[in-house]
Amino acid sequence: MTLKRKIMSGLAVIAFLAVAAAGSLFWFNWWLRFGSTRIYPVCKSSYGYMELTTPLTTEANAMFYGNMLPFNEGYVWIEEGNVIAKNWYWLFGEAELVQRTNYFLEELAKSQSLDPDEYVYCRHLALIGTPAHSSDYVAESYPSNFTRDTLEPLSFGVSSERAGHFTAVGRFYQWLGQVTGQQ
Fold first, then answer.
1. Is the dihedral of CA 13, 14, 15, 18 positive or negative?
2. Which residues does residue 79 pair with via DSSP β-bridges, in sequence order?
3. How do residues 9-38 score in pLDDT, each as one tens digit?
4. In DSSP terms, which residues pair with 86 in a beta bridge?
């Protein structure tokens, strides 16, 4: 293979990788801004933060809805008995999700005449908020701090968009959402 052919092949590979990277970044930002996912209570366990996926009692579900919906300006809603949120809120809203779960757990403990200060972990939520009332529960790992910190710069400020602070990329996706009817 001649030097010219090697250079042309290398440039073709670089061009392909650049297009693939740009497409992946475009898709990731589209997924963040316009996709949605089911929200579960995010609670603390010995493994870090977990999403408690075990079904809750009717009373606990009602309290969870009540703690998730206020002040969420349309990016969290109830759909078919589930709490649904925009993907950016699920991925980058850990502090708020944990705080809302803590309020929910405190309210749930008070409703059952229990000391709310003693009920702070996932196993406590499973004990008082699930039909089985057992410390055995099903949970999924919530994305780690490393994952969120790595993905945050690639989102081009999606977390601050709810406060009205849009980057050029955010304004582009806002326009694109209006054009495609996604917002």
1. positive
2. 82
3. 999 999 999 999 999 999 999 999 999 999
4. 36
